Amino acid sequence: MPISRRVLNQIAAAPVIVAVVCFVFWSSIIAPDHLKGTKDVLEVAKTIPVPSDGPESLEFDSQGEGPYVGVTDGRILKWRGEELGWVDFAYTSPHRDNCSRHEVVPSCGRPLGLSFHKKTGDLYICDGYFGVMKVGPEGGLAELVVDQAEGRQVMFANQMDIDEEEDVFYFNDSSDKYHFAQVFYVFISGDKKGRVIRYDMKKKEASVIMDKLHFPNGLALSKNGSFVLTCESGTGTIHRIWVKGPKAGTNEVFAKIPGPMDNIRRTPTGDFWVALHSKKSLFIRVFLSHPWVGKFFMKTLKVETVIYLINGGKPHGIVVKLCGETGKILEILEDSQGKTMKYLSEAYEREDGKLWFGSVYFPAVWVVDTSVYDRK
């Protein structure tokens, strides 16, 4: 039976209607959620410019010096204070000729999560191309520690934490398909190809302790080393993996977070700070609920456009503090307008009452006194 002209007209009009609806409601579709109980205080933070983009993770050595940060061109820099500024400390690749301070060059590596082994002074580095590496207290060229686990290559080492009593460390391999440069494609693809890996430093053996995760990003150990937290950014879920005690070998949901997560850091008291790339929006919910939508965007949009959409057209800063025992949200801090902070990747609280922040793209770190939000 032939299709009537009326039906054909309706079919032809459908794309136009969809386009008009999207145009009218576009700002609402991509706008970040408004969260209750947040403290919009982060715009008062002090900005410390970095001579390269993307100080994604921060770390301090056993003498309290630093922070040390890994940046886009493959270097690890050390902050020496206002007078000396940033100095070169280490790098993950000997190939330095074509390294860019603004764009990732795979041969130069991309240092992400940083963790000092306080007993030895070695700095361990999750590189988004090479795997987990380490460099001695004097810095220089890092050496490879582990780049595969259970027969699968480590494609996207992201963040790690060290249990010095057990001589083991844990880290996230965010994807077995993509490296760091495709980070947002990992997020929107819906692929559950990420895993959490345990590495025994004495036996030099790597084993997978959790698998089939949608973009596990940040990772941190509890204060007593009994469990590991992994931030599954693709689902907004933080999983608790028990590694010691009667629950060892089991896992459970620890917290649900209102946005795409990056790194997580334990506080001196045993709580946790989680950095969010942005808050959730209707747009984010749609493509996370339907993987085919995300894969469509992967094929049709540039990475810069995907970043713009995820941020609701307005890059901003947001971090969440969680109770170290229950996972309950204790604080939500924002720079909701992005006046000072953008693309936050880590929040690191020090015993001196300072809270430091890194950024996965912006060429700066920030620091604020915790009294700024404690007194609000």
Automatic annotation (TrEMBL):
Domain Strictosidine synthase conserved region: 158-246
GO molecular function: hydrolase activity
Primary location: other
Keywords, comma-separated and alphabetical: Glycoprotein, Membrane, Signal, Transmembrane, Transmembrane helix, Vacuole
Transmembrane segments: 7-26
Gene3D superfamilies: TolB, C-terminal domain
Keyword Glycoprotein among UniProt keywords: yes
InterPro entries recorded: 6-blade_b-propeller_TolB-like (IPR011042), Strictosidine_synth_cons-reg (IPR018119)
Pfam family, one: Str_synth
Signal peptide, first to last residue: none
An example Gene Ontology CC term for this record: endomembrane system
Location in the cell: Vacuole
Protein family per UniProt: Belongs to the strictosidine synthase family.
Protein name according to UniProt: Strictosidine synthase conserved region domain-containing protein
